[in-house]
Design brief:
Bound molecules: N-(5'-phosphopyridoxyl)-D-alanine
CATH topology of the largest domain: D-amino Acid Aminotransferase, Chain A, domain 2
Structural class: alpha+beta
Low-confidence stretches: none
Largest sheet: 9 strands, mixed
Helix content: 25-40%
Oligomer: single chain
Number of domains: 2
Order of helices and strands: EEHEEHHEEHEHEEEEHEHEEEH
Number of helices: 8
CATH class of the largest domain: Alpha Beta
Mean pLDDT: 97
CATH architecture of the largest domain: Alpha-Beta Barrel
Radius of gyration: 19 Å
Length: 287
């Protein structure tokens, strides 16, 4: 549970989270009209912040919302938020909604002032038990929209998918569109077969994951190749290993898919190497 820490960011100021207020006419609330980012921070230092800003700006541009701050101001606010909450390892949420209009109109009124909200929570390292056993996933048809490359706050699709995955006893939903792998409900997905690692390419069907780039760097450091190509649904059931990756979970091994063992039914050797190298890379960048 990502319990919010005491201080948050609202429209350029650090305020007590319990005192933060926005208008119920905010279009983020009424329409899910906004974008967000989740940035991990290690040792008080945001990890791959530039890449997260790039994606935030891409999303703002796609929704035609004016970026409220220059890059340096954004970075300063993120650092203020981290400092106000005592640093350490944390997840940082940043949201830019289009803002509040005079009422409810699908078409945005011109010159609305965006609402900027940020908060953070303590990021726990994955429990040894989870690393030893791996996670479980359910394969579900992707019910989301056609622009999953935009990190919009309209997340009711993934919420429904997470509820369904939980009902099936799984920790994550792995989404397919017909015969093809899309992504996880909140993660990028990798498959390994006979030592070859694959992940699907960037498209409107999936979020350009920052952790996927980090895993790419990790694989480079290990001298392992990554095939970027479409992955078929049956490849998931035949895989030796499946991993999911996200900013808050790093890279985790999937041991069970729809209740069936993935490979030997426990985290595999390629994942282990990736996980260990990931930790080293994190420590290097955070020091
Ligand atoms: N979600 N795909 C989807 C649909 C996601 O929601 C996420 C992350 C990812 C992984 O992206 P990244 O590596 O940049 O975190 C892929 C975040 C963590 C969230 O919404 O909480």
């Amino acid at each position: 549970m990502a319990e919010a820490l005491l201080h948050c960011l609202l429209n350029g100021a650090i305020v007590a989270t319990s005192d933060a207020r926005i208008s119920p006419l905010d279009r983020g609330f009424l329409f899910g009209d906004g974008v967000y980012e989740v940035v991990p921070a290690y040792n008080g230092k945001p990890f791959r912040l530039e890449a997260h800003f790039e994606r935030l700006l891409f999303g703002l541009d796609a929704l035609e919302i004016v970026n409220p701050y220059p890059r340096a101001r954004w970075a300063a606010l993120v650092h203020e938020l981290i400092a106000a909450n005592g640093g350490g390892d944390m997840g940082i949420y940043l949201q830019v909604a289009r803002g509040a209009g005079k009422g409810r109109d699908f078409l945005p009124e011109p010159h609305i002032k965006p609402t900027v909200f940020g908060f953070c929570w303590r990021l726990a390292t994955p429990k040894p038990e989870l690393l030893r056993r791996g996670i479980s996933a359910a394969m579900l048809e992707d019910i989301r929209w056609q622009r999953c490359d935009i990190k919009t706050v309209a997340l009711v699709g993934p919420v429904m998918l997470k509820i369904e995955a939980k009902r099936r006893g799984a920790d994550e939903a792995i989404l397919v569109r017909g015969d093809r792998l899309a992504e996880g409900s909140s993660s990028a997905v990798f498959v390994v077969k006979e030592g070859r690692i694959a992940t699907p390419p960037a498209s409107h069907e999936r979020l350009p994951s920052i952790t996927r780039l980090v895993v790419g760097d990790v694989l480079d450091a290990l001298g392992l190749l990554l095939d970027v190509r479409e992955v078929r649904r049956d490849e998931l059931f035949a895989a030796d290993e499946i991993w999911i990756a996200s900013s808050t979970r790093e890279a985790l091994a999937v041991a069970l898919l729809d209740g069936k063992a993935v490979g030997r039914g426990k985290p595999g050797p390629v994942w282990r190497r990736v996980f260990d190298e990931f930790q080293k890379l994190k420590q290097r960048e955070a020091s």
